Write the structure tokens for this entry.
Amino acid sequence: MKIIAVIPARYEASRFPAKLMQILRNKTVITTTYQNVVETGLFDEVFVATDSEIIFNEIQNHGGKAVMTGQHETGSDRIAEAVQNIDCDIVINVQGDEPFLKLEPLQQLIDVFKADDNQEISLASLKLKLHEKEEIENPNNVKVITDNNGFALYFSRSVIPFHREISYNVDYFKHIGVYAFRKHALLQFSKLEMKPLEISEKIECIRYLEYGMKIKLIETNFIGVGIDTPEDLEKARKLI
């Protein structure tokens, strides 16, 4: 089973343009992320998928591998274009603005497919238990509910499940956007039309569910440091 990692990387970002080219210590954010993923030793190959010549050249100039893609609405669609001619079985999507991703959650995602003898699982991802009311109600936190075997039932920006029976405690989980795909499922995903639920929620995982594919969620304690704003960049600089 050949396993690769792909880091989708846009130069433009609505909240923080050119964030991936900002400097952390003595390297850019995207180069830091790329090198950290390589250093996990989990992958046969690691690529950056980008529509930016600036990012493409940045990775190439540091001895890395990059693939130019067209414009895409989702990271999954960008990765699908990047891997269509790459020989692999499993594709791990690592966010370019998450330079501190740890080895353990990546290994957990890989192990899902190693244990999937019947090859039923199209996608594996991570979930994190939420405790604070403010975090649970925040629409920027995508919530996920699963069945007894850990397969996703639904993703939403709303509070799910709705806590009508207040005498019963219920757990809430945030979806962490680190994905592991079977290559054939990823390529199939990119050819499927967006349906109303995905369009309404703006959550690409819903497309898999709407077409009957299985998504396995693994609980993690990993809390990343995503760089979405200049303030996040300062936090990352202090952490590094």
User: Anything to note?
Assistant: The longest helix spans residues 103-114.
